Structures are given as structure tokens and as C-alpha cells.
Input
Amino acid sequence: MSVEKKKWGIVYCPKSGAFRPQNKWAKVEKCLKEKGIEYDHVQSENSGSVDRLVNMMISNGYKTLVIVGGDSALNEAVNCLMQVPREVRQTISLGVIPNGLMNDFAHFWDIDDDDIEKCVDIIAKGRVRPIDLGCIRYVNGKNEKCHRYFLNCLSIGLVASVIRQRRRASGSFGWRKLAFIPSSLLMIFQRLEYKMKLRIDTEVIDRKVMTVCIGNCQGYGFTPSAVPYNGLLDVSVVHHPEVTQLIEGLYLLYSGKILNHRSVHPYRTREVLIEKAERALVGIDGRVMNTPVGPFTVGVEQEVLNFIIP
Output
């Protein structure tokens, strides 16, 4: 089956825990029809089905892929695209209409969750920019060599725990702002430390830390200066602060000034080697992944994906 190049292939990912999740698609569909956009769409049943549907769209020849979803759904789409030959991938553009628990990559480009008409107009204009992707390379529990790409960030330690807590709370409350409250309280009262050993360029960090965030983009506030087009990763290593410093840290995090905190140590590099991260969860683009076995590396691949931007 082949399709016209101008026809969009859309994967709709209902927001987890949302009240009347089909309402969002009804609004998107109405806007598409009003603007005369030609498209085919499929709906994901769960997070595990996104990759299958994206692969189907790629196989059927769609050149404009649109994810109506959040960071996790975008991550699935990106990893599907990175499996196809580069010459095929270069003919495909990826766009997003935000509809997730976390839409931080869309927010970086000032793509608004609620302005569907603007989102559709952005994709219709088709302004494409090649962007970088972060990549984690690791060994899994079956002793298999694996890798996974990310758009926004990879987190190790407490931030990954917060992501897991935040997703659970979102499922219960159904509203992102309410979900952030228990997650923030977790950061204050769950005083976790992890014994880690990292190599960042020539520097070795071998000590207990609270969290490490490696950002290809803004990293949920922990790598606010990271951009997905300079061929570099921003790294924030957060040492364990006192309770009063944690409260200060929350204020700086929400105001985009976390790098000013005395317990945050920033770096900029092309690769990080994590030799040890005892008991620490690993999160990638808003979802906790299976923890790698043994050492793993996190690097960046420059300008490997076409993304539709404003």
C-alpha cells in the first residue's frame, strides 16, 4: 500500500487517566477537517502499542508522522524511526500535538497543549529542523547489548523515582498539576542517596549523589540550558542538600534557575560513562526503563531526525 506524500499518518495516544479521553481527538479531527488536511489515523491501545502503529505508518509510506501524545509516545516514535535506514528516515518528518502527562519536548518549541489549531498550522507549514538525539547503550538482564534513544532527557536516581510517582499520581488525579504536588513532596521528604561513579570527559565523580540528569533538551528543569541541536548533552549532578536547600531547590527548579543551586554541578559533554549507580532507577523521556546491568554510556547523535517546528 502506498499513500500520497502530503497525507499525514497520525497516531492518537489517549492521555492516561484523563476524563473523556476521546474529547481531545474529536477536537483534533474537527480542526483537521476544517483545514482540509488529508490524513489517516490509528489509536494506540496502550503505551506498548505505539511502536507497532508507528512502524505500520512507516511501512505504508507516510512522510509526515504526527503523534498526538506526550513525551513517552514521542520516545516510542523516535526509536521506531531510528530503526529504519537513514536514507528512508531522512524523507520522514515527525510532528507532535501534545496530549500527554508530560509534554516537555513540545513545550521547548513553544507548542501549546491547548491550542490545537496552532499545532495543526505548525505541522501544515512543514518547517523541518534536523535535531539531535541522546542515546543510552547498555546491557540488559539477559546479557544482551541494547540501546535506546531519547529526545528530552535521561535521569538516574531521585528524578526517575519522581517520574514514576508522578505517573502514578496522574493516573489517580487525572490532572498534571495535581500530580506534581505529591511528586514534589517526595523530593523533599524521601531523602534518597545513591552511590554512583561517573566519568564526564576527564573528570571522575565517585560519591553519593541524589540524582543525575543528562539532557538532550531541557530535562524537566534540571538541564534548562540544553538544546537538541548543538551536538552536546547537558549534565546536572545533584549532590545531597539539606532540607532547607531542598525547598530552595524546588523554587529554583520551577523558576528555571536550578543551575544556581549550590548542590547542582553542571557539565556539558558528548558522552557520559556511568560505571556504577547502585539501586538507582533510570528514567527516559518521562518513563522508568528497565535498569541496565553494569556500566552504561550515554551519548549524543547529531542531526539524525527531522522534527517539525514552529
